[in-house]
Design goal:
Elements lengths: L1 H32 L13 H7 L11 H20 L2 H6 L8 H22 L11 H22 L4 E4 L3 E4 L4 H19 L5 H19 L3 H21 L8 H18 L6 H4 L1 H19 L10 H7 L4 H28 L1
Antiparallel strand pairs: 1-2
Helix pairs in contact: 1-3, 1-9, 3-9, 5-6, 5-10, 6-7, 7-10, 7-12, 8-9, 8-10, 8-14
Length: 347
């Protein structure tokens, strides 16, 4: 049974990869034709960033559409095929009320909200022509997280949190703020990491790989197949997003994937392992928070530029060096997180 399910995950991942890979060239032409182009912040508001990335102005953005559109499209095709034909479509179908309704729904809602923010940036609406303010994004993250938290707590009766190597603890209504924090942190961190060619895509690939392994180990095969679809689409996205990027992920990608990652972590009760599965995301958002606090209370910066990947660029590292080294760190911590997960499960 588990072998058939493993094959299903691999088949769906392969279909997602080939589908996204074949559609992306047409999608890039569409973005270019309709001028969905990235706007670089002005030198007045971000001098170091502007100096390092001014050459990227005009690159198509909102490339994250290819990821979530592939995943949601395949989910719909397999679901409809299961109703009409069953058979092989029934085998591939991963739409399941208990396991994938919530991640599919949150992916769609977050993707549309992120696309709206991208559109504002394209039109140069918002602070420095960059779309919504951070506080407005945080409000959107909060509303999505609140909806998910209430669903988990009141409809699914979830109020237990696993602490790796220490066991499960009943946290009662504290589950709601914990859930909200995890989702907001995941979305915010992913958004901050999306700043170099291939960086966010690679980090998310490793994180979703870890979560897919976890879901499969727990016997949540529909959720693991959903993760396989995300992995396949992310691989296709990276094919075009590695340096020099043909397009950028945009908020529609970072918001949808960040929030979905947090939801899967809560569904698998591995929220406290997420900092291992996505260590670079924590590092990136942490650098931004520390920089803001230092400027406010000390009147000076800690880093040359934030998020921290820009700090290393300012030190003279080429962005490919930053990306590759951050990928290596991600793999190491992802592996450590999986070791802790299996130790927690089998010891």
């Amino acid at each position: 049974m588990s072998i058939l399910q493993a094959v299903k995950v691999l088949i769906v991942a392969l279909i997602a990869f080939l589908s996204a890979l074949s559609l992306t060239p047409f999608f890039v032409k569409f973005l270019s034709r309709h001028q969905f182009n990235k706007q670089i912040r002005s030198a007045d508001s971000a001098p170091i960033f502007s100096k390092m990335h001014s050459g990227k102005a005009g690159t198509p953005t909102s490339g994250g559409i290819i990821i979530w559109a592939t995943v949601l499209g395949l989910a719909f095709i397999f679901w409809l095929g299961n109703i009409l034909f069953d058979g092989f479509f029934g085998y591939l179908n991963f739409v399941d009320r208990a396991q994938t309704y919530l991640p599919l729904f949150t992916m769609l809602v977050a993707a549309l909200l992120g696309l709206f923010d991208d559109f504002l940036g394209i039109l140069r609406i918002g602070p420095n022509g960059g779309g919504l303010k951070i506080r407005h994004k945080l409000v959107m993250y909060f509303l999505i997280a609140l909806l998910g938290a209430l669903w988990f707590f009141y409809r699914l009766d979830w109020d237990v949190l696993s602490v790796p190597l220490f066991g499960q603890f009943n946290v009662g209504w504290w589950y709601i703020p914990i859930f909200i924090f995890i989702i907001i942190a995941s979305a915010f961190s992913t958004n901050e990491t999306d700043g170099l060619d291939g960086l966010a895509g690679g980090i998310l690939l490793f994180a979703f790989t870890a979560l897919t392994i976890v879901a499969f180990t727990l016997g949540r095969f529909h959720l693991a197949t959903f993760g396989g679809a995300v992995i396949g689409a992310l691989l296709a996205f990276l094919w075009f997003n590695i340096y020099p990027a043909r397009f950028f992920m945009g908020d529609t990608g970072s918001m949808s994937l960040g929030i979905t990652m947090g939801v899967i972590a809560m569904l698998t009760d591995t929220a406290l392992l997420l900092p291992f599965f996505a260590f670079i995301l924590v590092l990136e958002s942490g650098s931004v928070i520390l920089q803001l606090l230092s400027k406010k209370f000390r009147g000076k910066k800690i880093f040359l530029s934030t998020p921290i990947h820009h700090h290393f660029e300012a030190l003279g590292w080429h962005e490919t060096r930053v990306t590759m080294r951050f990928w290596i760190i991600s793999v190491v911590f992802m592996g450590l997180g999986l070791v802790i997960f299996f130790l927690n499960r089998f010891l």
